Amino acid sequence: MALRAQEILLDSSADVEPDEKIGLFRGLGLLPTALKARKNPDEKTLRDLLPPDLYARWLVQKKRFIGSDSGIEEWRPIFAAQKLRREALDDLKLRDSGMVWEVIGKLASKHDIATTTPRIKFTVHTRDIKAKLKEFTREPLADTECFATTLDLVVALSDSDTEARRARAWATADLATLQALPPLPAR
């Protein structure tokens, strides 16, 4: 007897919703605070926060994928790493999600299998948003490890020969080659 999937769980997501409408003018009033939350507390720069060897590696990748944007030097490492990753994926013509789920979604539709996207919903009290953003702005984050791992990932993805071999092996289910290739850093 062949077993058949009854349902496929897709990538999960988290939704953050305000408890009431924010409105245009209130939203515009929150914008400066939200943008400031990206920056390091005490006006520190990435050079101040990162170990010298990591910062030197960052400068190489920043020059390659971001360019001369000096404002990013004031960003918290986790936000700078995220921008670097997005820019690198775009420049390398890669993407980090969607392809597998597009194929699975088509197959599920063809075979009448239900798909569900697990979602967790957070409700934010609008009266607290500005205070929470300001609180976050003052909080130091221990994000150097995340920054380093993201930098390692960008460097690995930049190795086009290895990534082409990885793509061919994945597409043909060549498990031996996949296992022989160096693993990508987990973000």
Give a description of the structure.
This protein has helices at 24-37, 46-49, 52-65, 77-91, 99-110, 129-138, 144-157, 160-171, 175-180; strands at residues 7-9, 13-18, 114-116, 119-124. The protein has 187 residues and is mostly helical. Helix 1 (24-37) runs parallel beside helix 6 (129-138), helix 3 runs parallel beside helix 4 and helix 4 runs parallel beside helix 7. The longest helix has 15 residues, at 77-91. The protein starts with 6 loop residues before the first strand and ends in a 7-residue tail after the last helix.
Outline:
The protein has about 190 residues and is mainly alpha-helical.
Question: Which helices and strands, and how do they pair?
Answer:
Layout: E1 7-9, E2 13-18, H1 24-37, H2 46-49, H3 52-65, H4 77-91, H5 99-110, E3 114-116, E4 119-124, H6 129-138, H7 144-157, H8 160-171, H9 175-180
Helix pairs in contact: 1-6, 3-4, 3-7, 4-7
Strand content: 5-15%
Largest sheet composition:
2 strands, parallel
Query: End-to-end span in angstroms?
Result: 40 Å
Q: What is the N-to-C succession of helices and strands?
A: EEHHHHHEEHHHH
pLDDT average, as an integer?
85
